[in-house]
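ESCALATION

Customer reports they have been waiting on this structure for their group meeting. Please prioritize. Original submission:
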Amino acid sequence: MTSTILAQAAAPSGFDPMTLILILAFAFLIFMMFRGRKKAQKQQEQLRSQLEPGSEVMTNFGLFGTVVAINPDDNKVTLEISPGTTATVHSQAIAKVVPVPAPEAQDEAPAGQSSGDETAEETLRRLDSEGKNQND
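Update from on-call: job pushed to the front of the queue and completed.
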């Protein structure tokens, strides 16, 4: 009896659909890994093409700055984070190039409101006249 059970276990059982499913899932996983890597390389190349001195950038760790110099041999980018303060980061630390906003035409303020050039005293007087000042 035991010998027949062992003989059945050792005999090939033919086509196993689970093996095929596992092989297809593994092939799909490898395909998606390569696809993701190519996509990331394309984005990095596009970022490098936009990177030039004078462009505003954001790093992966949230630091904003203006590109001062690029050293492609050492993969270093020098950023000016405030006037007179520079930081050197690896070129792959640049997350994105921040687009410069287009200058907007200033609309005139609605009647009764100033254009934002009022002093603190004028603001208090305006709020008092509107009945919104709660600092009494």
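Sent to customer with the following note: Strands lie at 56-59, 64-71, 76-82, 85-90, 94-97.
Escalation resolved.
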